[in-house]
Specification:
Length: 349
C-alpha cells in the first residue's frame, strides 16, 4: 500500500502512486517476487489525523504485506496501528518524531537531515554567515526546518526561522523579512510554496543565494533560468546523473512502464520506485509466505546493504533514531541540470 499526503491542502506528493505502480509493473514483467505478482493499492491521509487512522486500519484489514513510500505528517496516528499488526513502513519519509522511533518505520528519507543538509551546504558557501530559513508555519513544518538552523549553526553560520503561512498566495512580506540581513535563504517548504518564493526572491534580490532539498526543487515547476544557481541537497543521485546505473534503470523503467507520465521522472518518483525495489529485494529472501510479519522480520535483518543508490543501508532495531540512509548528495542547478559537487555523497551531521 502507498500511504501519505498524496493530495492535501498543505502538502502533496502526487508522484507517489504512479511511481510505485510503475515500479510494480516493471517487477511483474520480470516475474514479480518469487513468482508472485505485486499488487498496489493506495490511501490518501490528506494531512488529517482521522483520515490517516482510517488508512492504517485499511492496511490492516486488507492484509497488505507492507506500506511503501509512506509520507505523512500523521505518523503518530498511523505507526502504532501498523506496528501492532507487524506491517512495516518500508522506505518511508521521516517527517514526525514517530517516524524516527517506531519499530514499524524503516525510513529511506530523513526530512530533517535533508532540510538540515541545506543549512550545512549553505554554511559552506563562501561569504555566507547569516541564513534565513523559510518554513511552513505549522508545528511539523517548523520542527523539520529546525534541523536546517541547527546544522547551519554547527557549521559556523547564524540562522533564523521565517514562518510562511500554510495557504499563502502572496509571500512578498515573508521574502522581504528573509532577505533582510541575510547572506542566503534556505527553503524548507513544499514545492508549490517554493514556486511562489523563488521568483519573489529573484525580484527583490537577484543575487541572493538560495538552497533547498531535491523534493522541493523538483516540485517547484519553475524554469531552468529561475532555478539557475540554486544549491540543492538530495538523498539520492540527481536524475541528471545518468552515469549512475540506478538512475539509468529508474529512467528506463519510468519510460517503459510509466504510461507517459513525466511527473514520475522526479526525485520523489525515484523514491517511490526505490521503495518497491527495496521491498522486492528483501521479500525475495523470504522462504514461505510473503506476508507482513515475514517482511517485518526480514527488514529488521538488513545489514550493510549496498543496493541501487543506497550505501551501507543497515537496520538497527534497537536504534532510537531510525535513520538508516545517512548519505546526502550536495548539488547545484547549472544549465538546467543538477550537478553533483565534488566529494559527494557526504554523511550528514
Amino acid at each position: 500500500m502507498v500511504m501519505g499526503e498524496i493530495q492535501s491542502a498543505i502538502y502533496s506528493q502526487p508522484e507517489m502512486v504512479p511511481s510505485v505502480t510503475m515500479a510494480a509493473a516493471a517487477l511483474n514483467a520480470s516475474g514479480g517476487v518469487n513468482g508472485h505478482p505485486l499488487k498496489v493499492e493506495s490511501c490518501n491521509t490528506n494531512a488529517d489525523n482521522n483520515t490517516a487512522i482510517a488508512c492504517a486500519r485499511k492496511a490492516v484489514s486488507d492484509k497488505v504485506a507492507a506500506v511503501v513510500d509512506m509520507a505523512t505528517f500523521e505518523g503518530a496516528a498511523v505507526l502504532p496501528i501498523l506496528q501492532a499488526a507487524k506491517i512495516p513502513a518500508i522506505a518511508s519519509q521521516a517527517f514526525t518524531p514517530a517516524d524516527y522511533s517506531s519499530p514499524a518505520a524503516f525510513p529511506l528519507i530523513d526530512a530533517a537531515s535533508g532540510f538540515g543538509a541545506t543549512g550545512q551546504q549553505l554554511a559552506g558557501v563562501a561569504g555566507v554567515k547569516k541564513i534565513a530559513v523559510m518554513a511552513i508555519d505549522s508545528q511539523a513544518g517548523l520542527a523539520a526546518a529546525q534541523a536546517t538552523v541547527n546544522l547551519a549553526k554547527a557549521k559556523g553560520a547564524s540562522a533564523r526561522l521565517v514562518p510562511v503561512p500554510q495557504t499563502a498566495t502572496d509571500v512578498s512580506s515573508q521574502v522581504q523579512d528573509a532577505i533582510h540581513g541575510s547572506d542566503a535563504i534556505a527553503l524548507a517548504v513544499p514545492g508549490q510554496v517554493a514556486a511562489l518564493i523563488i521568483p519573489a526572491i529573484r525580484q527583490q534580490d537577484s543575487k541572493m543565494i538560495i538552497g533547498t532539498s531535491s523534493g522541493v526543487y523538483s516540485q517547484a515547476g519553475l524554469s531552468a533560468a529561475q532555478l539557475e544557481g540554486i544549491y540543492v541537497d538530495s538523498p539520492n543521485p540527481p536524475l541528471d546523473d545518468t552515469n549512475d546505473s540506478s538512475i539509468s534503470k529508474f529512467l528506463a523503467d519510468a519510460q517503459k512502464y510509466g504510461n507517459g507520465n513525466k511527473a514520475i521522472e522526479t526525485s520523489n518518483g525515484l523514491l517511490g520506485w526505490t521503495s518497491v525495489q527495496l521491498f522486492a529485494k528483501v521479500a525475495s529472501g523470504i522462504s514461505g509466505s510473503i506476508n507482513s510479519a515475514a517482511v517485518f522480520t526480514a527488514m529488521n535483518g538488513v545489514k550493510n546493504l549496498d543496493f541501487l543508490w543506497l550505501k551501507n543501508y543497515t537496520v538497527d532495531p534497537s536504534s532510537k533514531n531510525r535513520v538508516f540512509n545517512k548519505y546526502i548528495y550536495l548539488c547545484r542547478a547549472t544549465g538546467g541540470k543538477l550537478v553533483v559537487e565534488p566529494g559527494n555523497p557526504i554523511l550528514v551531521g
